Amino acid sequence: MAKNNAAVVEIAQTASRFSSSIVLQSENKYIDVKSILGLFTTLVSSQQYELHVIGPDAEAAKAAMVEVFEKHDLNVVIAPE
User: Closest by alpha carbon to 68, among 8, 27, 19, 20?
Assistant: First the structure.
């Protein structure tokens, strides 16, 4: 679980650097990735996640988020707008 804690903190910190809205979709749940609590209750490595990124710095945010998810072996795709 400790590995997951590191992932949650790093994902939230990375997301917080951007002004864009970054929402994680897991099945039928939507979580603001800037919310550490929301991530703790949702993030499990076996699942497929979809990121919805909308805002002025969306492109940079998408690249940074994919990088941090992959670093922690989490399966993520960017949702098409």
Answer: 8
Other CB atoms within a 10 A radius of the CB of residue 59 amount to 11
Q: Which residues of 11-43 are buried (b: 16+ CB within 10 A; e: fewer)?
A: bbebbeebebebbbbeeeeebebbeeebbeebb
DSSP 8-state code for residue 43 = -
Q: Read off the pLDDT of residues 43-74 as tens digits, 9 standing for 90 and up.
A: 765 578 899 999 999 999 999 999 999 999 88
User: DSSP 3-state assignment of 26?
Assistant: strand
| Reported pTM | 0.86
Query: CA 38 to CA 40: how far, in whole Å?
Result: 6
Residue spans of the domains in the chain: they are 2-78
* CATH 3.40.50.970, applies to 2-78: no
